[in-house]
Every structure is written in structure tokens, then in C-alpha cells.
Amino acid sequence: MNIRHTTEHDLEQIMEIYAYARRFMAEHGNPNQWGPTHWPPRELILSDIAANNSYVCTEKDQIVGTFFFTQGEDIEPTYRIIEDGAWLDEGPYGVIHRVATAGTIKGVGSFCIRWAYEQCHHLRMDTHKDNYVMQNLLKKNGFALCGIIHVTEDPYPRLAYEKL
């Protein structure tokens, strides 16, 4: 597998992957994380592409996954306030959002997370309390549960994870 920046040419495939991910989450007990708002919107993905923060995972030139990644100092405003816990480290970090796979091969999520970790060695991620698939993926990849954060997209609290 390989990771590369997303291009606008990839947009329709990316949106199909997100539609698949919404169906998958709903079928696995997590209908509220992306479903009601049809998250993420096309405009956000186009903005991510323009900012060079959108990536695709490919296998034999086929897109098998997608995600948002950026890194820096205090880059995620929703991570400034954490409840029922604390972050492990306050230094610069990378953040991964909107991880989704095509469901065609195993290990794509872990591959994307490992790639992001290789870029900065300090990651933060969050997920819905009903997203057991992502929670297990994060635990499997060495993340620690740090507390709860809130996002602006919906009223559901998110479990906040970090890996150093």
C-alpha cells in the first residue's frame, strides 16, 4: 500500500468511500457519527485537497482508503478543551480525521495511522462513543484514551485518543 495526496480527480471515489463508511458505521451500531449530517461534505473535502491535508491510500493504483492529516502547534481547536481526563503531552502534534476505507482489503486503517505516526510521532484522534471499530483500531495501534472532546458538527461527545 502507498499514501499520496488526494487530487480533485479522486473526489468522486473519495465520496463513494465516505458513503460506504456511513453505511458500514450504521450497520455496526454507529448511525450518528456521520450519518445524519452525511459527513463529510464535498466542500470540506475540496478544502482539504486545496490545503494538501487530504490523503488517499492506494493498492495497485486503486484507492482503498482516505483520511485527513495535518500537524503543528495547537492545530485542532476542538482539542483545546478536554473533559474527564487530560492529554498526555501539550507539544506539537499530528491529527487524523475522517478515516474511511473502501472495505475491499484488510489493514488499510492501520496502514494510514502508522503512516501518519511516522510523519510526527505524536498523534491525536477522536471518535464517537459508538464507533467500536475505530476504538479497537486505535487501541491496537497504541493509542491511549485521554478524555472527551466536543465537535461543532453535532451534539455527540467524542472519545479523545493520543499516541506518543
Please bin the fraction of helical residues: 25-40%
Unreliable segments of 5+ consecutive residues = none
| Order of the strands making up the biggest sheet | 1-2-3-4-5-7-6
Structural class: alpha+beta
Number of helices: 4
Strand segment count: 7
**CA-based shape:** globular
Task: State which percent range the strand residues make up.
Answer: 25-35%
Average of per-residue pLDDT values: 95
Run of helices and strands: EHHEEEHEHEE
Q: Radius of gyration, rounded? A: 15 Å
Largest sheet: 7 strands, mixed
Calculate the terminal CA-CA distance, rounded to whole Å: 24 Å
A few lines on this structure:
The chain is α+β, with helices and mostly antiparallel strands and 164 residues long.
Give an overview in words.
The protein is an alpha+beta fold and 164 residues long. The chain is 29% helix and 29% strand. The chain has a seven-stranded mixed sheet with strand order 1-2-3-4-5-7-6. Strand 2 and strand 3 form a beta hairpin. The mean pLDDT is 95.
